Here is the input.
Amino acid sequence: GAGVSQSPSNKVTEKGKDVELRCDPISGHTALYWYRQSLGQGLEFLIYFQGNSAPDKSGLPSDRFSAERTGGSVSTLTIQRTQQEDSAVYLCASSSGQGGEKLFFGSGTQLSVL
Amino acid sequence: AQSVTQLGSHVSVSEGALVLLRCNYSSSVPPYLFWYVQYPNQGLQLLLKYTTGATLVKGINGFEAEFKKSETSFHLTKPSAHMSDAAEYFCAVSNTGGFKTIFGAGTRLFVKA
Here is the structure.
């Protein structure tokens, strides 16, 4: 596709529900990232996929968070039993997977947990 | 492990004044360094990057940054601020090892008329 696509753009959920956020990276990009952007917290790294390598999950804040990437393309970030502190903008980015390359960001999913 | 520290969550300058946004990094291997900008209600876009070679790098909209290994810094500057520069700026580091890109907490730039 022309750019990184994320859906939904906005998600409102109730505390305790599960949510799934989707990211469609740029075609051919082997690297895919998920970040979380909260007020005053900058861009918090969550997880990184690179080709067929095992994902780097070192940024996931708890075991309620998980992500998968199917067929080396589309990725889904799942948050189970959502909490109010999960409210944030979740950003996906992709890149060609070469060192030093820039990241292309999606528009993000604004998650609000009531 | 690698990390990025941006000094000052908010910076305010007058239009026409020098812009200086500070970034220090930590990396156990030679770093790749980036500045990204996020304009209000827009996505992040790359301003400039350092990989190898010349330590002074020029980016879009008149911004530049200098890689100083001895100071582990990559400060962003612009000689004369414009109102349109008001945005949030993020410094980021990657490296030749794992390529994972880590961002700083961001600095919000305000430009006063």
